[in-house]
Amino acid sequence: MSVEAARAKFQSYLSEKGLRVTSQRLAIFDAAFAQKEHFTAEDLLEHARKIDDSVSRATVYRTLPIMTESALLREVDIGRGEKLYLASTGSTQVAQVVCVDCDRIFEISAPFMEWYGSTVSSKLGLKPVSQRLQVSAQCIAFRERGSCPNRTR
Amino acid sequence: MSVEAARAKFQSYLSEKGLRVTSQRLAIFDAAFAQKEHFTAEDLLEHARKIDDSVSRATVYRTLPIMTESALLREVDIGRGEKLYLASTGSTQVAQVVCVDCDRIFEISAPFMEWYGSTVSSKLGLKPVSQRLQVSAQCIAFRERGSCPNRTR
DNA sequence: ATATGTGCAAATCCTTTGCACGTGC
DNA sequence: GCACGTGCAAAGGATTTGCACATAT
User: Fold this and answer.
1) CA dist., res. B39 & res. B6, Å (int)
2) CA B109 to CA B91: how far, in whole Å?
3) What is the distance of C-alpha B3 from the center of its chain?
């Protein structure tokens, strides 16, 4: 799905739900879809303000759930204090591989995850809605050199 | 592994790491292993205080990572504000199935998860350390009646 | 004896919320 | 016009931390 299509989808979603298409929401959308990596709410605020400096932190936090519900963003919670977000490319069958040292996150498609989730929950008679797989791993640089180039801590 | 064995393991772990075996740490251990379900740091504080009323919130928070690192507790983060913990019975190949309505957590063993993690991360040349699978699902009661008996929200 | 651990309360961090004003529809 | 959205700053909730005192080794 192209960015243009996603933008149209966002506007449709808002209208259908009786929500309003505001300049702030569009700025937040544009800022989110300009990111190439995972971003935090704070990152998003910063970038959205470059597009429309009237955007407030509160509006970012209020818009994030809307974009998540409309499947335009994927929320990624790897157990740090803050949540991460990523513009959704369509697939929900994605696993996060997090380097134990540098905290870099690699997203990889995992089409077999669906089968996995249903296998697992059918044991309990539950109907799976979504599944998340998170793998902690040592990245190549860490294994070879004992530390990661991207390390921030 | 029995509770007695786990308690011994905890004391050994502390000694090996040059950490001290204090009455507070033992009270926290005992409180944790007396729980049958997932518990929060606050739950643990409350129960530990019944054993030793000198236990403080700070000590609970300082002891939790020690018990997690020594594999005596498993940390479960399902994206609520607070983290949950569970006395570890040994296996790390466990998936959490969370009911979307009542938030109940079912832990089920998932021995094939290890294979899954390595398959996934080998695509990136990473060495997997641990993996977590979380499945959101509708529980039986929710599907049949539209709401869960255990619902708290 | 002394390095660790502890309780307390304050501080932190991310996120949410109340309110008065602004603005799409 | 008016319901919904917004910015601001304050509140919120979980967790962390600085410090002086206590204690395991």
Assistant:
1) 18
2) 8
3) 15
Whole-structure pTM value: 0.87
Asked if A136 lies within 8 A of B124 by C-beta distance, the reply is: no
Q: CB–CB of B139/B99 below 8 Å?
A: yes
CATH of B3-87, one of 1.10.3720.10, 1.10.10.10, 3.20.20.300, 3.40.50.720: 1.10.10.10
Q: With a 7 Å cutoff on the CB, does B11 touch strand C?
A: no
Residue A97: what are its φ and ψ, rounded to 5°?
A: -110, 120
Amino acid at A58: A
**D23 C1' closest Cα residue:** B22
Q: What is the model's pLDDT at position B122?
A: 73
Q: Strand B127-138 to strand B94-99: parallel, antiparallel, or no bridges (unpaired)?
A: parallel
Q: Rounded to whole angstroms, how far apart are CA atoms B106 and B138?
A: 12
Contact B96, B104 (CB under 8 A): no
Nearest of A99, A70, A110 to residue A85 by alpha carbon:
A70
User: What topology is assigned to B94-145 in CATH?
Assistant: Dna Ligase; domain 1 (3.30.1490)
* Residue B58: HSE in the Cβ half-sphere, 13 Å Cα cutoff: 1
| Mutation target among A114, A118, A136 for the B interface, most CBs of B within 10 A | A136
Distance A49 CA to C23 C1' (A): 19
Q: Which of B43, B39, B148 is nearest to B103 (CA)?
A: B148
Pair B84, B37: CB distance under 8 Å? no
Q: List, for residues B30-85, the tens digit of each pLDDT value.
A: 999 999 999 999 999 999 999 999 999 999 999 999 999 999 999 998 888 899 99
Residue nearest to nucleotide D14 (CA to C1'): B82
